[in-house]
């Protein structure tokens, strides 16, 4: 088995579903289910809290008893069931309940797949960036196809796209899998992985975690309101997916070259680059609220997201034992990709109602402190 190819395929298939979820889900709740922007923001915000709690506690707990493969299989099956429950749901209450269930299960697939990748990087020497770029390609393909489908059949195509994507994920679970991902943790390793306190005792981990929490949380307005913002700018439905994809295309180019281009960069330098790029991105969207600047700013996604994510993944693979990687991924996904985004989604929704461009400017409340933290701590913590 070519393990590099296995990882690339699984990244590709997962991000097919992520392309239906990340840029479209809030817009789908508004356009197809009839919720207001405020109601959808509330549901997605609390859904992010559910996602955060699930990835912080349930995912690391399951990883102590089940193999990585069984964790991914279980999450895929439950996610499919939750997707089906969306079909009859129409009221705010039912959509709220189903979204909590869906948010607690489906997004947890992200740290599950990323943890599997970190193990394969650590034990088999696969190149993370080389495989991760196929995830970005899957995202591009998904967003492009969905933009065409919604233009033809409306926002209802978003839910069906998610259903089909998860079906492909389930199919992938029954194909041959690297042996190390089929191994359940031993009792000895299980005891070593129980304490998150040991993870937090790694000198530089808490400060690196704080920085990525700030940087990833700063994408809240873009992820949740970018689709609606483009509609407000009167962009043709067929072109919205293409514009969203520009960010991911730059991300693909970054991941293609990351392993060689940034091989000698330390974590703090990568994070500083990400923080500066992110700050510039949100200020541009505030100063120039038009489609052309939005398109131009998409190129900065390689810095604001790609560099920050790559920095964290390479940090944990180089500094943590295999048994602690699920804990690290769970905390990262829970706090950086969920809880911080949940809080900032609510803030972004409030600002968006005042003025759409304020929702983007509000994100520098995270990026500027991140710059200050990096500059003030990089020598002390040597990261």
Automatic annotation (TrEMBL):
It is found in: Cell inner membrane. It is a multi-pass membrane protein. The chain crosses the membrane at residues 12-30, 42-59, 71-89, 95-122, 134-153, 159-184, 205-225, 237-256, 268-288, 294-317, 329-352, 358-377. Keywords: Cell inner membrane, Cell membrane, Membrane, Transmembrane, Transmembrane helix, Transport. The keyword Transmembrane applies. InterPro entries: HcaT-like (IPR026032), MFS_assoc_dom (IPR024989), MFS_trans_sf (IPR036259). Residues 6-360 form the Major facilitator superfamily associated domain. PANTHER family: 3-PHENYLPROPIONIC ACID TRANSPORTER-RELATED, BLL5896 PROTEIN. This is MFS transporter. The lineage of its organism: Bacteria, Bacillati, Bacillota, Bacilli, Bacillales.
